[in-house]
Amino acid sequence: MKLTLVRFDRVFDIQYRAFGFGTQTEFGFESDGSATYGASVIGCQTIPIGEPLIVAMRREGDWKNLYGWKNLATGSLTIENGRNNLVWFSVIGTVAIALLAPIILLHDPLMTDGERTAFYLCAIGIAARTYTGIARQWRLVKAKRLLRQAPSAA
Q1: Residues of the chain with confidence (pLDDT) below 70
Q2: Which sign does the torsion angle of CA 95, 98, 99, 105 carry?
Q3: Residue 96 CA: distances (Å) to CA of 92, 93, 102, 121
Q4: Which of 8, 14, 57, 140 has the fewest CB atoms within 10 Å of its CB?
């Protein structure tokens, strides 16, 4: 997790795209005379122009994975809520599969090997989505904490 100080002198090519169960704001910007293309932040965000920001990103210079920012002029935070219902549905789905799998697989003689394999692959997919969702939520919580602790002029 990296924090970077930036001022968007000019913002261009703002596009809002569907992303999972939400939206993603993609944009390009100019800062200190150099242009950056392909920046993106989760949510339908309004990009502040000409104000100093502390930006939280996954890795240094990784503008495709912005978590949010703190406006140093106003002290306001702009970051995704951090509540992703899909994570909880995935957790419930994983628990349900874990509880139902032995019953279905051991007591259903009509289930073919292909159906069992498909069932296992679905369970693995749901478990993988659960892991990535929880990891992403943890990074959002960490980014929000870092941005709140960052100093502001206001």
Answers
A1: 20-22, 81-90, 103-105, 107-108, 153-154
A2: positive
A3: 6, 5, 11, 15
A4: 14
Nearest CA-CA partner of 1 in 55, 72, 82, 78: 55
pTM of the model: 0.69
Positions of E strands within 8-101 = 10-19, 22-31, 34-42, 52-57, 66-71, 77-79
Length of the chain: 154
4-41 exposure pattern, b = at least 16 Cβ within 10 A, e = fewer: eebebeebeeeeeeeeeeeebbbbbbeeeeeeeeebbb
* Torsion sign, CA atoms 120, 121, 123, 128: positive
Task: Quick: pLDDT tens for 19-43.
Answer: 766 678 899 999 988 999 989 887 7
Residue-level pLDDT at 28? 93
Phi, psi of 61 (to 5 degrees): 80, 5
